[in-house]
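hi support,

uploading two proteins for the ticket. first:
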Amino acid sequence: MWSGIICFIVAVISTIWTLFMPFFHEKAQEISPNQHRFDLMFGFFVFLVCSLMDLVKVKTPFHAGCNAWFLPLALLWYSSEVKMMINNNFGSPYHPSWIVRNITTEKYSGNFVADLTNSFITVMTSVVGATYGAVIILLYLEPKGWTWLTWNGMLLIAVSAIYMLAFGSGIASFTEDGFPPAIPVLFPLDGKDLLGAIESHVRDLIIGMISIIAGISLNTIAKNSTQPMVYLIALSWIFLIVPKIFLSFTDVELV
């Protein structure tokens, strides 16, 4: 209930913000539709994670309760923070695609407070909150029948996020003066490869969320017919792995 309300508020705020897009500066107009799409998608992901907390709270009431409260509030702050960065044409080390797309030419905003708050809430939401939720689900959700599909969906999303950290963004310093020390990208991607990795990550999120919903639904309506599940899980991993091989180890451009 709580997570649903917060995620709905995020969606409403994002929609209203997008309605004012004609009054934004040119670069903000270019990036705001993508941010709106991400708000809706990540908001739905947070809602799913918090919903899954209900399935594991018997086994781990403390961790499930903490994440169900923390993650929606972090999402609300994060979504608002990114809109502020976009409207002020600030750079962000956690959005390297903005430089590739020529939305901004700077990695940081030049404003200490904006850099600090943006970096802090980005890490708290994407790295800490989402990872915390995924680990809780993977450890405490007992996969039986079609819920294997749900468990696999969360694993897909987690693996895709790790790929983005390793190949896309790393964990940057919060401020331009290097505090705290960054965890660098291990295998940096540039240009179209970076944009391709982001689009691949978006597809992974969608496939993972569909898997989560399908697993819960089919475990109710088709509990005794799980044979197709193996093929669906295998197919989902093909969709995750193959594009990343092309992006990371070949010269083929996917965007």
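and the second one:
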Amino acid sequence: VHGGNIFSNMQLARRLLCKVHFAPKVLHIPNWVPIGHLDTPTSKNFFEQQVFSRLDSSEGIKKIPEIPLSFDFLKQYGKSIEKDNKTYYEVQFGSSSRQFQAPRQGKGDDIVFTPDVLVYFGEDVVEKLGFLFRDVNHADHVLRGDESWGQFHLAGRTILFEITEPAEGIQKKLDQLQRYLFVLKRTAPEMYKSLLCVGVMCNGTMNDFWVEAKIAEARFAKIGHEIQEIPFVVLIWTPHRNIFKEIGDLRTKFDNLSTTVVNLSTTVVNLSTTVDNLS
């Protein structure tokens, strides 16, 4: 230290170190889209739109629309296969594998995965995980973690979910989640570490849901290493809402309300006539 009070400089250095120590860690999220609601699904599937519309929204939500799979990633983790005069790369993601055609020169470098729900919650989000799914979760089966999964705060964490209408799609969706996680762990480790919960939301009958949940439980340990590192993995059953029936029910309620108003108006007129006669 030159030309200053050593004690005051030490105090200043201590304060600066404290600020650095307590500064909140900001997760770097590439290609995110700031949104205030989760009702803007990338898929046009009607059931998925209904599920999204039922998820509670919160400020500080950042949706990550895609997970890039670069050519370098394919070369590093894939096995090169020549087929029909074309080069493919087969990547083993766990229990499942997929082949990807090598990008043609000048046609772009990345293949992208598009998860249904990959969302990061900022440090200002105060809600818990269960609050987010409060109107969606009619039954759930926890594959990893315990029943307390809904009690964990969302601030600074990421969730990853797939949505399928038939319950029979749960197994394929779990394999799909494993592929996403395999890539995220190697290309976006900070985001991977921030993952609090991954899972599948599905429709179908409740009986089918429980049958598929038991199958998923039996094969869970074989799906892949990455999915077993996530604190909570959960399957959620959310019944399909017939929006047209709901509109019809709403119309009936309004019709009944209109009839009630008309009857009330008639009663008021009759009461007025009675009062006039008494006068």
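thanks. also noticed: The two ends are 101 Å apart (CA to CA).
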